[in-house]
Design a protein that fits this description.
Glutathione_S-Trfase; Glutathione-S-Trfase_C-like; Glutathione S-transferase Yfyf (Class Pi), Chain A, domain 2; 8 strands; Thioredoxin-like_sf; Glutathione S-transferase C-terminal domain-containing protein; Glutaredoxin; 2 domains; two-stranded antiparallel sheet; alpha/beta; 9 helices; four-stranded mixed β-sheet; single chain; globular
Length: 316
């Protein structure tokens, strides 16, 4: 039986993730003036201080955007709003803010921005979402493109010495690698966890661990990162799944062939990333565990949140 909020994404026992509804982009090639809306191609102007990135500390898709924002030194250019890790039937809530409303957007629910943009929207409200503070409209919830645009469209506002996370000479290889990581690992854990048939679960499980084994083999030649000596977008995307793996995916989503701590190459790699600024300091294991174990009632009807694992192992 699928978890209630994901019922619309179940097909013959398989979890099929919904497409992203808002796919406009913030681009330095926008023909719109400062303060303007999207141009005829859906491109909004790059303007520091104008946009607000909404995330949940629990969500791996949103976490990657926050890591990239930090790595590139964009924390002063793009505001950050944080939703409560516990979703109710209305979706993501700003209950972490003192008055239960985002202090910039003035909304209590992220769904308010979604409906202000498309009053007919009936899909699942997701993070990350970039919201225009001038109009209250959602610019994009297209999580794969958000981070790529932070790396390529906001270059005039990158900090000195910021890493080149999406280097042009390697983009073809990066795109292929990230597509495999998404299909089998990032989304693969969800395909296993939300499967409602044994066959669907087994397929996702097999593909997940085959890909983790392949990634471990790729890193076993001593390279510090997936693309060699350079940190890239691919590392960010893999990290947000690896850091949640033992805490939630191994048990809650039944991805239990191995823990990451039991896969030496991946464990060393994940800890290396964890120690970098922007990575470990943006991880909140308490919110991660509470989100997964308290919002997927069909998987964990008791609502009990596991006490472990001990997060100190990441710095041991």
């Amino acid at each position: 039986m699928p978890t209630p909020q994901f019922v619309a994404e179940e097909r013959d026992g398989r979890f099929v993730r919904q497409s992203n509804r808002f796919t406009d982009r913030i681009s330095r090639d926008s023909s719109s003036p400062a303060g303007g809306g999207p141009d005829e191609r859906g491109r909004w102007p790059v303007e520091p201080g104008r946009y607000r990135l909404i995330w949940s500390r629990a969500c791996p898709w949103a976490h990657r955007a926050v890591i990239v924002r930090a790595l590139l030194g964009l924390t002063g250019a793009i505001g950050l709003g944080t939703v409560d890790p516990i979703r109710d039937e209305r979706g993501w809530r700003f209950t972490l803010d003192p008055d239960g409303r985002d202090p910039v957007l003035g909304i209590g629910l992220l769904s308010e921005a979604y409906l202000a943009t498309d009053p007919t929207y009936e899909g699942r409200v997701t993070v990350p979402a970039i919201v225009d503070t001038l109009t209250g409209r959602v610019v994009t919830n297209d999580y794969p493109q958000i981070t790529l645009d932070l790396a390529t469209e906001w270059v005039d506002f990158h900090a000195a010495g910021a890493p080149e996370l999406y280097p042009e000479p390697q983009r073809a290889e990066l795109d292929e690698l990230m597509a495999d990581v998404y299909a089998d690992v990032n989304n693969g854990v969800y395909r296993a966890g939300f499967a409602s048939s044994q066959d669907a679960y087994q397929e996702a499980y097999d593909r997940l661990f085959a890909r983790l084994d392949a990634l471990a083999a790729r890193l076993s030649d001593g390279r510090p990162y997936l693309m060699g000596d350079r940190l890239t977008e691919a590392d960010v995307r893999l990290f947000t799944t690896l850091v949640r793996f033992d805490a939630v995916y191994h048990n809650h989503f039944r991805c239990n062939r191995n823990k990451i701590t039991e896969m030496p190459v991946l464990w060393e790699y994940a800890r290396r990333l964890y120690r970098l600024p922007g990575f470990g300091d943006t991880v909140d294991f308490d919110q991660i565990k509470r989100h997964y174990y308290l919002t997927h009632e069909a998987i964990n009807p008791s609502g009990i949140v596991p006490a472990g694992p001990d997060p100190s192992v990441w710095l041991a």
